[in-house]
Amino acid sequence: MEAAMRRMRFATFALLLGFCSAAEVADADDAADAWKALRAGGHVALMRHADAPGGFGDPPGFRVDDCATQRNLSEKGRADAAKIGVQLKREGIAFEKILSSPWCRCIDTARLLNLGTVETAATFGNVVVLRDQREALTTGARALIAKWAGRGNLLVATHGANIQALTGISPASGEIVVIKGGNDRAEPVGRLLLD
């Protein structure tokens, strides 16, 4: 009985080890696919804002027009956003247009990338805080993505919950999920977690 339990534990360990290795390969493949897509152009890069401690959403009484009332980027988040911008430039990735959620942590992330002019787009507003508007915001975001027919890429700095609503992926802070522009399915092509 004890020998059977040891074999079972070993088999479980081996199985889990196999899954971990497959996940690491998938991550490398996802990154390679994301870089290839961005180099080709015509894609949308959905980026979760960089590190902004304090949980999800914003403090009670926050106002979108007052950064002092919101969760904001930490020093780490500010440094990470700048480093991500440098890495994207180093890889030769350019963006034809850059949009941001109206929340300060997203605007700051997009600006600190130093990749171009940043415009805000209300449809990428925080779907956690604006939960009563979640469906309308997500529909608007899908429509905007479907209209993207630029030869270059579109970068959108937004919130993790928004990216999850669009793609089913819950990204880490600063992570980029690349999707094909020109359709409203928002199917992920690849993912980049830069540092």
TrEMBL record:
Keywords: Signal. It comes from Bradyrhizobium algeriense. The keyword Signal applies. This is Phosphohistidine phosphatase SixA. Pfam families: His_Phos_1. Residues 1-26 form the signal peptide.
